[in-house]
Write a structure and sequence with these properties.
Helices cover about 30% and strands about 25% of the residues. The chain is an alpha/beta fold. The chain folds into 2 domains: about 60 residues, Roll (2,3-Dihydroxybiphenyl 1,2-Dioxygenase, domain 1); about 120 residues, no CATH class. A 5-stranded mixed beta sheet has the order 7-10-9-8-11. A 4-stranded mixed beta sheet has the order 3-6-5-4, with helices on one face. Strands 1-2 form a two-stranded parallel ribbon. A hairpin with a 3-residue loop joins strand 8 and strand 9. The longest helix has 15 residues. The two termini are about 15 Å apart.
Length: about 220
């Protein structure tokens, strides 16, 4: 169940509301972060391949490199100091399957046209292809890097974050079993775009559901 959390809490009520499973509201008596800054990845034998993966998939450039007691590459795609750091640690072991982890990093794009262009470019350069899903209010593509870290690229289909939040709240209130993640055949979408299908149809949840085969889900559940 998805619940909207926009209320302001007093410090006392904040303390009382943090039991797992209960609604948690923001306590306005102390600051929250102003923005998310970056993600950090530890890599081992695949270090060079991981750096190249993010350079190609997210069109990032190397902002700077630290190489003394450790090897650290810092990557960025905008004016921020860096958005992603990759550190080489030679003694790391591969992560066990189904282990506790941060599940993915996520990167917003301006349009579906941009995302489809990126998919074509990445496949030419790296030979990898993402899974895709439609969630009604956004479309997401999902890659896995050489160390099995997941990377989501998405485009919002509603104009504001408030409308996206309300979309999920309303859908789940009306139907607790609403399927919020519809995997679809991305190659089918690329073919439809090349054949002249309108971008408005390609963005439509109902059109994707009715006109594209079900694809492979990246969802771990």
């Amino acid at each position: 169940m998805i619940t909207q959390h926009d209320a302001v809490a007093s410090p006392a009520s904040h303390t009382a509301s943090t039991t797992l499973g209960q609604s948690v509201v923001r306590d306005m008596s102390y600051p929250a972060p102003s923005a998310f800054s970056h993600a950090s990845i530890f890599s081992g034998a695949n270090f060079a391949a991981v750096v190249r993966f993010y350079q190609i998939v997210l069109n990032m450039r190397v902002k700077y490199v630290i190489k003394n007691k450790f090897h650290l590459v810092l990557l960025g795609c905008d004016g921020e100091d860096h958005r992603l750091s990759v550190m080489e640690l030679s003694k790391l072991e591969a992560r066990p399957v189904n282990s506790v982890r941060i599940e993915h990093t996520s990167w917003r794009y301006r349009s579906l046209e941009e995302l489809l262009e990126v998919v074509r470019y990445v496949e030419r350069e790296l030979g990898v292809f993402p899974t895709a899903d439609h969630r009604g209010c956004l479309i997401g593509f999902h890659y896995t890097d050489p160390d099995d870290n997941r990377c989501e690229m998405f485009v919002d289909l509603l104009p504001t974050q408030e409308e996206i939040t309300q979309f999920f709240v309303d859908k789940m209130a009306a139907d607790p079993d609403y399927i919020t993640l519809l995997p679809f055949d991305l190659r089918g979408m690329l073919a439809k775009q090349s054949a002249g299908e309108s971008i408005e149809n390609l963005k439509s949840y109902e059109w994707v559901r009715d006109n594209l085969p079900v694809g492979k889900s990246r969802h771990p559940l």
